[in-house]
């Protein structure tokens, strides 16, 4: 099909172009037939230009104009004119001109799309995913994808300027089933053997430090075969990086520079650095989360010392079991009804709490079911410590430390919503979380697991605890949190073979097992590994936050559903028996 | 392990830094103990600095200096001094200074490496691959990887500046067994179903054009499960891109800009554009290859018309069967011995030729086994057409067109080597190959295959041939060739559902099969697909050529062997039975 090449995009024409002869290519966005004169908004990625088919101006173009429908692809030639006075559209930059059409070629017709190509679409997401190629035609989605493009360029430019070398690591790698589940790829050339898709390039980037690359980065696809939660994808993108001869401070500084650059380039916002920091313990005690949302205060308060001498059995038991009593003040919520309080009690019960203690703060004391169990001193200390005034509402939870804190953290978020504490144009709040526990105990398998991964370095001052009391050891690990979302996590790594051995001991990983799974990394460390550390950003989530979206699927061109299906091509799909035969596998 | 942060890299100190107190971190490259004074070349990615341990300067540092060995990682503090007169090393930029060590910390020891960390290494590649982390410590390899990094940055910057949007396409996609073999990934959540790894993002990038993204690019990993040839990798990297509302000319121009930019940024070379072009037919007739090496002439000449009336049976049969008679003049090679000519005859026989006709050009005629079968007129025409003089050697091959031409093409390359026609500092030669056949006939399966892929548009003037004589149809396809290597290939695509249907007919793909395999793409085309086309660059090969290497493994950080093994981690590997069970597969 022959057509004239466009002289301009549909977002380009201005009053300067008036009287010029132009060619535009694009999609019919809307078409209005005003009794003889046909107006079409012609659309491409760059914008919209109105083109006009007038029978007195060009009869044959007007004839074809009658046949045009939404989403037809056309090429038009014509003359730019100033729009008649009163018909300008100042809301778009091309709105002061239109094009009088002299010639039109239909490049492709279109069926009526299953939904309109417009923003604020109200159709089920499954339909959008099935027709993703049409969904992506909507300006909202194009803006998201273009924002993502700018993030790639901005991040790479910053990292390149800071001497980071982009290095591609293998996608077909060795299965190391520590952490999440691997996706496997059967080998045809080696019967009975499998590659795994990388959960992250962790081991490779550490090897690159052993190689002396000093600073590595990659924006890279990673894969986890998990039971998918609402906003997880089996394949996801990370900004992955690693640095040699550094400690945590160097990583913080470099990453704060990256965030500053991204905020500036993408959102035009001047991020103030250095960013604040909270230790894991502080974050848990004040916000009940290792990814606290700091856009509002609403801090939790640990009340243990108030109740050291308490007669109230619930608190007494908690303290005897090394648990925690944590309180939250909901200022001005003293008028919550019993029904509202029941709903909140159900909310925390669903999260595993035994119940929710609440108290209405009155001028003359505390009104609460448990009030009678507390001493006057306890009540007045409680008010003082929580800074409570008449009309406020107090919540208290008690129980095992991390459990009670994180349930209160959820209640904190819930109350922030109910109290409408997150304004629309509130400043972004970023915070480093530091000093994570190195290990997590798993009651089911009766062993410790690495909270980050088995290569994370313990805090140097905790080294001797590693064999005696591993649960107490803190890690040189850090997360970066943005408005209550974890956007990055990393650590200083173990670069010493001996310390790595101790770590495997603590994890209950035998020498033999370590050799099989990580032998090549352990070997590499014998040949002069430098001190090193790094971090990885969840790129999809970061893009989602920058785009002010609620789901990462809004910033991924071709996402999968929560069960890992692509509704557009219906993968995963059934394959030919002959393909399986070649791979030496069969379905069981 | 506590250590001081470096104040400078090992490539940074100059005479300006003399008398400064500095900290360097790096690897012990070489160590010389000159009876008391120890000199160490300290190495990092950025360079080498000599550091000096002198007992009279610092006794305790000198003591530790005695223990240092190659590849130890150390941190030193000391004072920069001018090297004593006569001991400067002008071959490195840091060679006029050294650092008198006041303090040294051993950050990590090293076993003796299995090979020296030096350029021009003479060990088996398998050893290099097993210890890749050490191989990558060598400057040669670091330079290759850094060159590759610069190529990424340069290509992305050019494409970004030209309105291309970087969009990630899925790695877990649908298996479409047309073309090479897919790598499959069993689905755990959907028993008996499989994802495939992309052989290229071809269908996605066409969908993105349907979505109106206008210009897309991605530097992306692709996967082919082929029986690996020497220089193939199961995973490889492409610069993939696609443009809307374009014809071939637009693609040529944009890609010539990309190559110009890459040559400038990476090699400091001013590439002249536009690049020359050859049709597939011209390239085959003149160079016997669709990726001709134009760094030397040595053109082949088609001799059919000389022998139209010939009595020589071999030529006569060839002409009767629509074959070709092709000649090559090896100037000055008339003194080749019978033995040399036998070797060359074996060379073409191995490629499938029945034999090789050769003729020594003498003052008084042609000396050749077949001379007696040729007429005087034929002989003199032959000399005239090949522009042959006494002392030259003539080769002739005859047979089926493409076969004879490509064997002669191989002989052409062989002779260029023997005649030493490729100088060392010869200019790079790039050429577009155009007008490829759309389809290739396969004798085994008795059907046509798409020479590029089934979405390639036929030349518009050949449309009616598609049903009548499909083998004659030329495609709107193009390759870019650099010094005899195909570095990119692409085409203008079919954007019209009807034409695509005809194409499937020609390929013997039924409607049903097309629906199953490409249904979502065909569907997308019903909703307003713009005219579009694109191209993909073999990034590994391009990096190899820019780095003046002979193997793509030299520019890939962690490559696999020709049987798809990673010698470093021994993947693919045996996995736990429980993993297979979860994936509903078993080994057969």
Give me the CATH fold name of the largest domain in chain A.
BirA Bifunctional Protein, domain 2
Calculate the terminal CA-CA distance of chain A, rounded to whole Å: 51 Å
Over the alpha carbons, how many angstroms does the gyration radius of chain A reach?
A: 30 Å
The unreliable regions of chain A are: none
- Strand-residue proportion of chain A: 15-25%
Order of the strands making up the biggest sheet of chain A: 6-9-10-22-21-20-17-11
Give me the secondary-structure category of chain A.
Answer: alpha+beta
CATH superfamily of the largest domain in chain A: Bira Bifunctional Protein, Domain 2
The count of DSSP E runs of length 2 or more, i.e. the number of strands of chain A, is 23
CATH class designation of the largest domain in chain A:
Alpha Beta
Describe this structure in words.
The structure is a homodimer of 588-residue chains. With 588 residues, chain A is α+β, with helices and mostly antiparallel strands. Chain A folds into 3 domains: 15-108, Beta Barrel (OB fold (Dihydrolipoamide Acetyltransferase, E2P)), CATH 2.40.50; 142-277 and 430-556, Bira Bifunctional Protein, Domain 2 (BirA Bifunctional Protein, domain 2); 296-418, Gyrase A, domain 2 (2-Layer Sandwich), CATH 3.30.1360. The first copy, chain A, starts with 20 loop residues before the first strand and ends with a strand. Chain A has helices at 59-67, 125-130, 132-135, 139-161, 202-210, 248-267, 280-287, 313-320, 338-350, 376-386, 401-418, 465-468, 497-506, 511-524, 539-546, 577-582; strands at residues 21-34, 37-44, 47-53, 73-82, 97-108, 165-166, 184-186, 194-196, 215-223, 235-244, 277-279, 300-302, 324-330, 357-362, 365-367, 393-399, 430-434, 439-442, 447-450, 477-482, 485-492, 532-538, 585-587. In chain A, strand 2 (37-44) and strand 3 (47-53) form a beta hairpin. Chain A is built from 16 helices and 23 strands. The radius of gyration of chain A is 30 Å and the shape is globular. The interface between A and B is large, with 127 and 128 residues. Strand 23 of chain A pairs antiparallel with strand 23 of chain B.
């Amino acid at each position: 099909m022959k057509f004239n090449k466009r002289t301009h995009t549909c977002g380009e024409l201005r009053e300067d172009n008036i009287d010029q002869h132009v060619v535009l290519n694009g999609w019919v966005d809307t078409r209005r037939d005003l009794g003889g004169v046909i107006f079409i908004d012609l659309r491409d990625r760059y914008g919209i230009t109105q083109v006009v088919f007038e029978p007195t101006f060009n009869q044959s173009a007007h004839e074809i104009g009658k046949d045009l429908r939404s989403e037809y692809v056309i090429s038009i030639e014509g003359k730019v004119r100033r729009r008649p006075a009163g018909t300008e559209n100042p809301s778009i930059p091309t709105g002061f001109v239109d094009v009088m059409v002299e010639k039109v070629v239909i490049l492709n017709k279109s069926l009526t799309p299953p939904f309109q190509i417009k923003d604020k679409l109200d159709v089920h997401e499954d339909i959008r995913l099935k027709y993703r190629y049409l969904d992506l035609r909507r300006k909202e989605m194009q803006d998201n994808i273009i924002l993502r493009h700018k993030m790639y360029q901005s991040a790479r430019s910053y990292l390149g300027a800071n001497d980071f070398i982009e290095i591609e690591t293998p996608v077909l790698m060795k299965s190391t089933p520590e952490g999440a589940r691997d996706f496997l790829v059967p080998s045809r050339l080696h019967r009975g053997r499998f590659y795994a898709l990388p959960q992250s390039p962790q081991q490779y980037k550490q090897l690159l430090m052993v190689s002396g690359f000093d600073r590595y980065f990659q924006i890279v696809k990673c894969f986890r075969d998990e039971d998918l939660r609402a906003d997880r994808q089996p394949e996801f993108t990370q900004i992955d990086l690693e640095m040699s001869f550094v400690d945590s401070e160097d990583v913080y500084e470099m990453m704060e520079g990256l965030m500053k650059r991204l905020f500036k380039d993408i959102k035009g916002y001047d991020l103030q650095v250095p960013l604040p920091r909270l230790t894991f313990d502080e974050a848990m005690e004040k916000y009940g989360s290792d990814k606290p949302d700091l856009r509002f205060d609403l801090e939790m308060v640990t009340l243990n010392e108030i109740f050291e001498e308490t007669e109230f059995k619930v608190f007494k038991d908690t303290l005897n079991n090394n648990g925690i009593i944590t309180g939250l003040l909901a200022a001005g919520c003293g008028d919550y009804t019993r029904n509202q309080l029941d709903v909140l009690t159900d909310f925390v019960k669903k999260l595993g709490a035994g119940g929710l203690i609440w108290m209405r703060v009155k001028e003359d004391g505390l009104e609460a079911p448990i009030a009678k169990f507390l001493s006057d001193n306890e009540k007045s200390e409680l008010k003082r410590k929580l800074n409570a005034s008449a009309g406020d509402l107090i919540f208290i939870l008690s129980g095992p430390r991390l459990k009670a804190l994180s349930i209160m953290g959820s209640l904190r978020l819930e109350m922030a919503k109910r109290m409408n504490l997150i304004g629309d144009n509130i400043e972004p709040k970023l915070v480093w979380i530091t000093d994570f526990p190195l290990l997590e105990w798993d009651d089911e398998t009766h062993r410790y697991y690495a909270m980050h991964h088995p290569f994370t370095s313990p805090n140097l001052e905790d080294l001797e605890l590693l064999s005696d009391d591993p649960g107490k050891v803190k890690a040189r690990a850090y997360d970066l949190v943005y408005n209550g979302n974890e956007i990055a996590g990393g650590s200083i790594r173990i670069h010493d073979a001996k310390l790595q051995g101790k770590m495997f001991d603590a994890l209950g990983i035998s020498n033999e097992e370590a050799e099989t799974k990580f032998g090549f990394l352990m070997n590499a460390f014998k040949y002069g590994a430098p001190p090193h550390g790094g971090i990885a950003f969840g790129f999809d989530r970061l893009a989602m936050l920058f785009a002010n979206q609620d789901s990462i699927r809004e910033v991924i061109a071709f996402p999968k559903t929560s069960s890992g299906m692509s509704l557009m091509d219906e993968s995963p799909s059934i394959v030919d028996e002959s393909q399986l035969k070649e791979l030496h596998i069969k379905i069981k």
